[in-house]
Design brief:
elongated; 2 domains; single chain
Length: 188
């Protein structure tokens, strides 16, 4: 199947008539995903479902997926750092949920398990920063977080960037040190 948006529906249908795809085409129209064109699903059930369209509670985002709980901590911190700077400038206390709502445009679409995993990763990253003697710019306020106002925005940005570099060094995979083919184990 080929999935497109309402913006390119007309072009996709023209190309389908030319025989370019040979697959069913699904079009996303705000919160409705519907099958268009002449190519059919092999499954009658799918054909019936998508012929009527599948409606979602909200408009489905079609932009970049920012990060997941499986991404390295350095990458996640890179993605949430603008929000941390904003929270500090606004002198705001925030929870992991509040931070994720601002930093992750798909957060509302995730299932409970993925949300729990992301909250856990954010909590772990913030706790790690709080515990690190060299980078204590995060304060814990009984289930809420706050960025220390004693840091200027410029100093905070530099501290975050330095902490990201520290995480990247810790996350680097160990390098293979084999110098010749015989140094590698042969499969049994």
């Amino acid at each position: 199947m080929f999935v497109g948006t309402a913006k390119n529906e007309k072009r996709l249908l023209e190309e389908e008539e030319e025989g370019k795809y040979g697959l069913p085409i699904l079009i996303l129209r705000d919160s409705l995903l519907v099958k268009v064109g002449q190519n059919q699903f092999k499954s009658g059930i799918l054909e019936g479902i998508f012929a009527k369209g599948v409606t979602f509670g909200k408009r489905i985002p079609t932009a970049f997926y920012p990060f997941s709980a499986d991404d390295p901590s350095s990458y996640i911190l890179t993605e949430i750092s603008p929000i941390l700077l904003e929270m500090q400038m606004n002198d705001s206390e925030f929870s992991e949920d509040e931070l994720l709502h601002k930093a992750h445009q798909y957060y509302d679409y995730l299932d409970k398990k993925e949300k729990d995993a992301l909250r856990g990763r954010i909590g772990f990253i913030l706790s790690s920063i709080k515990k690190d003697q060299d980078f204590r710019f995060v304060l814990d306020r009984q289930k809420k977080w706050k960025i220390d106002r004693d840091f200027s925005p410029v100093t905070l940005k530099k501290a975050i960037q330095e902490y990201i570099r520290k995480l990247e060094r810790e996350e680097e995979p160990s390098k293979l040190r084999a110098t010749k083919l015989g140094d590698f184990a042969s499969p049994a």
